[in-house]
Amino acid sequence: xxxxxxxxxxxxxxxxxxxxxxxxxxxxxxxxxxxxxxxxxxxxxxxxxxxxxxxxxxxxxxxxxxxxxxxxxxxxxxxxxxxxxxxxxxxxxxxxxxxxxxxxxxxxxxxxxxxxxxxxxxxxxxxxxxxxxxxxxxxxxxxxxxxxxxxxxxxxxxxxxxxxx
Length: 165
Hints:
Elements (H helix, E strand, L loop, with lengths): L3 H18 L16 E5 L6 H17 L3 E5 L7 H9 L6 E3 L4 H8 L34 H10 L11
Parallel strand pairs: 1-2, 1-3
Helix pairs in contact: 1-2
């Protein structure tokens, strides 16, 4: 299966992250971690590429952990709403983990936030990332990014683009 190396790498990363929760004082009571379902907050809508990726990781991790890993989609604010809300509401016991996007680092520079992007989170492991590019159709008159920008500047409102965010 084409997804196997990715699945194994992501599963390993998530298991390491979840195991880190076992070291938290609240989670290290008398029973082994995990002894109840784990919530994985995905700060994007259901059905998108990030959601799909995280659901595969959660499904595989559930098998190995012996507890469900429940995906909760909490989209909004450019991928920051769900994770930011977690920082204020979840117990620090390892039973709630969230996908932390680079937008979490940018947002406080663009507007006032009720959370600190460094001090309000415990970073466990890098699990996923995206590389973005800029493309046009092969028959487009624009062959470089600078040509595209120049056309947009000369004709405001007449050049379109699409973005995931």
